[in-house]
Design goal:
Elements: H1 6-16, E1 38-42, E2 45-48, E3 53-56, H2 71-81, H3 92-104, E4 110-114, H4 117-132, E5 136-140, H5 157-161, H6 172-176, E6 178-181, H7 186-195, E7 200-205, H8 221-232, E8 235-239, H9 251-256, E9 262-265, E10 276-280, H10 282-285, H11 304-319, H12 322-344, E11 350-354, E12 357-361, H13 370-374, H14 378-390, E13 393-394, E14 403-404, H15 411-429
Parallel strand pairs: 3-13, 5-6, 5-7, 7-8, 8-9
Antiparallel strand pairs: 1-2, 2-3, 4-10, 9-10, 11-12, 12-14
Helix pairs in contact: 2-11, 3-11, 7-8, 12-15, 14-15
The structure holds pyridoxal-5'-phosphate.
Catalytic activity: (S)-4-amino-5-oxopentanoate = 5-aminolevulinate
Pfam families: Aminotran_3
Cofactor: pyridoxal 5'-phosphate
């Protein structure tokens, strides 16, 4: 067993870690082959244990919006570790972090820091249930909200890829309290609401979906949900773990001009450290312990090192609006390049795109919900994925993922991705 290679490491990993990975999608099951073990990364590049360099399109699933190993964040973390790693007591940076989040996201009046996106969404629905005194929630097929029991019903991303949308270990009681509707289907939501009058605590969604691949809300969808929630006293939760601080400084809610009651955050907010947050209307957040009766706690919540990284990241994004115009430009350059190649090769695949998120779906259908995403040719995606990898492009190893661009990608990098895409399409299709 040669543990200086990805293959060797994966063989060893499988002995000691379930499936050899600490998060399922990393195992490459959806695309076949053995996962690439990453050794380091800098700016737009990642390097594996085998000595290969790749252009980075995953960016840790979003957090590396400024590219890898950003110097400002490195410096902030180096400074912070001089003062110890954790106190389990309040610190100055937590206050600064909360104030900054509130200023960047106007719907958030109060915010609580946690350690992952999963914790953020679990906590947000607990508060919504406490606040409304109701039990049921509505989620959308193909939306992923972390691995909390309530959300492992028709979940996207890894759960889609592995065909286990209803995980064993989730009780029937929990499953019964989670109602699901097709994404972009307001009429289905209205039906669920009518059939469960005064029982629905919260409606949670990705305002732009990243976890069935990139799927955009149809015109009027978010507005319609806001209206239904207002009429029925349902807490509207935007899960912006992916989209927060990515689709604009104020997230998808700012971009689409819709104000949710609660927002969940993660990924970018930690600058690469394990961080999440949930926040929203003070009226609701005042229910959280110790101010209110809804319990939620964390030994490492607001961890000083994580706060140093996250605060530096958010301050940078807050002070540099040009980040977002650059990401828009890069996203357009990349996806119009892809469109040109697709047309040139006489293909009719669908590209969904917004800002710095995109997915190329191997289907001729418009992808607006989970069934249309699933109409993609997954075998072809697997071939394409490996062709891209062989050409030095590091993408999410599943059709049901969005790619995430960073500001470290120059036009020259984007053009290399466009070229690799065209060659990979040809190779995968034997054109
Ligand atoms: C990644 C993600 C989560 C889960 O966050 P973790 O930090 O992996 O627990 C929740 N919701 C959305 C929309 C996500 O993309």
């Amino acid at each position: 067993m040669n543990i200086s290679t990805s293959q060797g490491l994966f063989e060893k990993a499988q002995k000691f870690i379930p499936g050899g990975v600490n998060s399922p999608v990393r195992a490459f099951r959806a695309v076949g082959g053995s996962p690439v073990f990453i050794k380091s990364a800098k700016g737009p590049y990642v390097y594996d244990e085998d000595g290969n360099e790749y252009i980075e399109l995953i960016n840790s699933w979003g957090p590396m919006i400024l590219g890898h190993a950003n110097e400002l964040i490195q410096e902030a973390v180096s400074d912070a570790i001089q003062h110890s790693f954790s106190f389990g007591a309040p610190t100055r940076r937590e206050v600064e972090m909360a104030e900054l989040i509130v200023s960047m996201m106007p719907s958030v009046e109060k915010v609580r820091m946690v350690n992952s996106g999963t914790e953020a969404t679990m906590s947000a629905i607990r508060v919504a249930r406490g606040f409304t005194g109701r039990d049921k929630i509505i989620k959308f097929e193909g939306c992923y909200h972390g691995h909390g029991d309530s959300f492992l019903i028709a979940a996207g991303s890894g759960a889609v890829t592995f065909g286990t949308p209803d995980s064993p270990g989730v009780t029937k009681g929990v499953a019964n309290d989670t109602l699901t509707a097709p994404y972009n289907d307001l009429a289905a939501v209205q039906q669920l609401v009518d059939a469960n009058k005064n029982h629905i605590a919260a409606l949670i969604l990705e305002p732009v979906v990243g976890n069935m691949g990139c799927v955009l809300p149809a015109a009027g969808f978010l507005e319609g949900l806001r209206k239904i929630c207002d009429e029925e006293g349902i807490v509207l939760i935007f899960d912006e773990v992916m989209t927060g601080f990515r689709l604009s400084k104020g997230g998808a809610q700012q971009r689409f001009g819709i104000t949710p009651d609660l927002t969940t955050l993660g990924k970018i907010i930690g600058g690469g450290m394990p961080v999440g947050a949930y926040g929203g209307k003070a009226e609701i957040m005042n229910w959280v312990s110790p101010l209110g009766p809804v319990y939620q706690a964390g030994t490492l919540s607001g961890n000083p090192i994580a706060m140093a990284a996250g605060l530096t990241m958010l301050n940078y994004l807050n002070d540099h609006p040009e980040v977002y115009s650059q990401l828009e430009t890069s996203g357009h350059r990349l996806t119009s390049g892809f469109s040109n190649s697709i047309a040139k090769l006489g293909l009719d695949y669908t590209i969904n795109h917004i800002g710095s998120m995109y997915t190329l779906f191997f289907t001729d259908q418009q992808v607006t919900d989970f069934p249309s995403a699933k109409s993609s040719d997954l075998v072809l995606f697997g071939k394409y994925f490996h062709e891209m990898l062989n050409r030095g492009i590091y993408m999410g190893p599943s059709q049901f993922e969005s790619m995430f661009l960073s500001t470290a990608l120059t036009d020259a990098h984007i053009d290399r991705v466009i070229e690799a895409n065209e060659e990979s399409l040809k190779a995968a299709l034997s054109l």
